[in-house]
Amino acid sequence: MVRPPLQPVLRPPLRPLLWSGALLTAGLLALDGAASKATPLYTLATTCSLAGAAPSRCSVEAVDQGSVTLYRHRIGNQETVIGISEEPYVRMGRWDPASSSWQPLSSATARLSANTVCFNGSELCVVNPNYLNSLRQEKGAALNGRDLIKVTFGRDGRINAYCYDDGCPTTTP
Fold it and tell me: Are 103 and 94 in contact (CB under 8 A)?
């Protein structure tokens, strides 16, 4: 299995990674040598699901690489990596081992009451209270009384729109 190079990736609150074209490639290559600067944040034993399948046991490893945070989801013998970056804009992406490249996400949804985050509809869903607690801390009062948060991304992985609860469309774009 080809593993994504260690690089600065995203930070919590639904913050996306994926620089487009040359910026993404240049940023990732620059980070290739940054493995020694990676700081483990946490490892979590939890449940995940792929492509809408029933939830199964998995582990999530979060690694801070400076401007990017990597979230490695291990489900059985599969690994799915989500990267979140804040610089220069909040971006989110998924490592595609087949092409050995980052692919921007189309959407992310968080259900605070269930501590669940889903990416690209139900392509990957994970129970991750650590990530959502960091989101709650960062957003503070803005999330009081909120339960559902949806974010959509452009082709470059940058946030296009976000909504809360009843303000969210009933279908995923």
Answer: yes
